Structure formats: structure tokens, C-alpha cells
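Researcher: Last one for today. Full complex below.
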Amino acid sequence: MTQRTYAVTGVASGIGAELARILKEQGHRVIGFDIHEAQANLDRFIALDLNDAASITAAAAQVDEPLDGLCNNAGLPPRAGLEETILQVNFLGTRAFTQALLPRLRAGGSVVNMASRAGAHWRENVAQVKRLAAVGGCEGLAAFIAAEQIDATRCYNLTKEAIILWTMAEAEAMIQRDLRMNTLSPGGTATGIFGDFQRAFGAAVDRNIKRAGRAGKPEEIAQIAAFVLSPAANWLKGADIAIDGGMGAFNLTDAMDLQGLRLA
Amino acid sequence: MTQRTYAVTGVASGIGAELARILKEQGHRVIGFDIHEAQANLDRFIALDLNDAASITAAAAQVDEPLDGLCNNAGLPPRAGLEETILQVNFLGTRAFTQALLPRLRAGGSVVNMASRAGAHWRENVAQVKRLAAVGGCEGLAAFIAAEQIDATRCYNLTKEAIILWTMAEAEAMIQRDLRMNTLSPGGTATGIFGDFQRAFGAAVDRNIKRAGRAGKPEEIAQIAAFVLSPAANWLKGADIAIDGGMGAFNLTDAMDLQGLRLA
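Model: Here's the assembly. Have a good evening.
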């Protein structure tokens, strides 16, 4: 097999840590980024704080080898008090880090952005996403939050809608760079930040998990991320893939009253 | 590795033939179904006419071993004069064949249904899909087509919307059977029926392919089908995956005017 080199953010825990493990198991090199130091399954660790423009520049500058792919997996959960940081880390900082790494991505390279089932309502929130995308700097963010009157949960959902729409918007430009970018939208996954989602989204989380039979496992998301990073997925471009054990389908089935379509 | 056994319909050409090749290359057993006899990359060929209820029953009855997965890939293109056959083969017959094979599918089994980018407007056509799903027998189909006043192109799109919505609707019931079902939605793929799509969808097809750089290759769709059939994709349930080289993303970007979100 061909050994490839992948960059993975948020590699210290959860889906990112599982992705590093799987990529190493497949024989690849992994450069891991996180705000918390990590070593497991990494060829190299580089400290990265997506809330800090200088850290983004410095981290990207330390990458001195060509990359076959980048998984933008790092993200903050919905947590009161973190509104600005969520907008910065999950979307604006992730976008800036991607831009900083573009020159390192080899032709044919794959960028996988971790979105969320929480971003599924992107169709209804295009205008707010555009306003967020146009915000510059930290002062701008505080004013944006005040003007939009949004709490941490809405900030979180907005960043996931933004990452889906941004990925779509870049599809054509990425082709011109001989790169491709897609989003994955996990739902109800058993990671260290699962409690935040239960608090933010209430009973719906437990109801979905009950219908799905259990929460998703980080490795189940990471397996699909590893595939989308690989050349076997090379015709996947600008797509969003729901990885939620059926949770999205249950909710759409209810909303559209599709039960009658089922086999006897 | 574990050898698995997969059933693939429409295996004589295009995406189905490529899927058989890839699954064999991965060391699996492949039982192929088609209206046209095929042998390449198959452990067994079973004749199947999805337009014929007796053929569906007979073909399914010939499967005497447990299956790890089924790819419902067979389908007719939009072609004037084939209206009833399109509705029958692409949706009603495919659904009946799936039902007939359910008892053969092993716990953990994966069903992959070939939808299309032409089915992307499922949100707007739920009511018509429900009416199609309720049609019984051939006489019913003629009356349905007359009542709905639909041509072959609309029939084709409707069957693809139907397969996406049906797959969604089954997500929860499939979990109870310890199975999972997803759809793939290729766009602009270079198969033997490509000319039909150019005639049916006009200049939009060539425009999309120009923006994507080229048409998709059957093997690029089949690689993803092989992955979704595999246990590595086991948390994918009730999902629809666009595999279109970015064509869906271009069109959504235009429709929502997202160009401003792009990196400089």
C-alpha cells in the first residue's frame, strides 16, 4: 500500500484520537493538532489553539511536509459562556487553519470537516451563516452575538451549519486546486463532551439514542472519516454525510409522516 | 480478512459490474442479478427481471445462502415509452425484491440502494411518492401515470425520490431487524445509459460535467458502494450520500448565492 500523510485536529480525544489510531493502523503518517498535548498514534504533535490567530499561523508553519489530507475535527460543544470561542474555534478558526494549510496539501488531497447533525437546518439559516462568515476579529464576534441574540447552543448549531455551507461553497474552487472537501455530520456520539449535548438539546438526545439502540462510537465516525480522506472516495466532493445511526432518518420520517412507506 | 457474500443487481454493466469487480478484488463472494446474462466477477448469476413479479420471487428463491449485503443497483434511465417500466423496476420492483431477500440477510447486513442526483428534490415531492408507493399492480401504474400526467423523465426522478424516502422511512424498522439501509446518489456518471440522461436533462448535464471537470466513473461510485456495504460503515443508517464530483454543491452554491463564503 501507499503510505500517506494526514493532518488531524482535535487529536487528543474522541473522534480525532480514534481517527489517528485507524490511520496509523492503515500504515499512514499522522500529524496531530490539539490544544491539549497528545502522543498516542501520532508521528508528530503540534500545539494548536483555534481560538488564537497567532497559534493558527504558527501551527501551520510547522508543517514542513506535503499532506494527503486534513481532518478538521477539533470543535467545542455547546456550553454557556463559550459563545465567542465556539464561533471562533468551530468555524472561523477552522476555516483560517484550512487556508493556512492549503499550500501543504498535495494534488488529489482530501479535506474532511467535522460538522454535526446539529447543523442539519442549514437550509433555513443561510443568511445568518453569511453574516457570521463576514465577521472579522474578536470585537466583531461580540457585536455579532449581541446583534443576533444567540446563546451557546445556537452558536454551536450555527457553526455546524456554517461549515456545511462553506464546504459546499468551496467545492468548485477546490476542484481548481485539485483538492476536495466534504463534511461529516455525526449525531449522538459517546465522546467526552456528550454531557454538553444532553444539556443543550434536552430529552431529544436520549429519545434519539433510544430509537437508534445506543449512542454512536467515536471509532464509527472515525472509520468513515478515514475512508473519505482516502483516494477511494475521490468522487465525493462538497457533500455532507450524516453518520448518526439513523437519527436523522427517524426525525425526517416523523416530520414527513413516511411510516406508510415501510414494508409490511 | 473475513470473506463476505453480497448480492448485486444490475451486475451486467456500469456501476454494478464495477461493484462486482471490486468486491471480488476484496476477496468476497458475489451473487449477481440482471435481466442480461453476466459472468464476469460473479460466483453465481441469477436472472432477474424487476418488471416481473414472478421473476422477483423466483430469483430471490434461488438464493440459498446467507447474505452480508445487497446492492439494489439495477435501474432504467429516463426514456420515453418506458414510463410504467421505470416506476416498476426502479422503485416498486426493487422494493419487492428487497422484501423477498430480507430473510436471507444476516444480522449486521447492509442494503445499499442506488438513487440519483435526479432524486434530490424529494423534500418537495413527498405526496407524489406516497401515492406511487400505494399503487398496486400494473393496471394501477397506468392509471397513476395518467392521473399524475407525468412523462418518462418525471417518472425517473420520482422513483429516485421514492427510493430515498423509502430508505429513510425504513431506517428504524431495519434497526429492529439488525440491518441497515442507505442510498447513494450519483450524478453525471459515464455509463452506457449516459445518453439518456443528456436527452432527458438537456444542457444542465453538460454544464455540470464541465464544472466538475469530467463525468464520474462507474468505479468511483462502486468504490463507495463497496464501503457502505462493509462493516466499517456500520453507523451509516437511513442516509443518502451524494457522489457527484461536486455537482450538487455547485447547484446549491448558485441557488443560495454562497460564493461569498469562499476563501480568498
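The first helix of chain A runs from residue 14 to 25. Residues 5-197+214-244 of chain A form a domain with the Rossmann fold fold (CATH 3.40.50.720).
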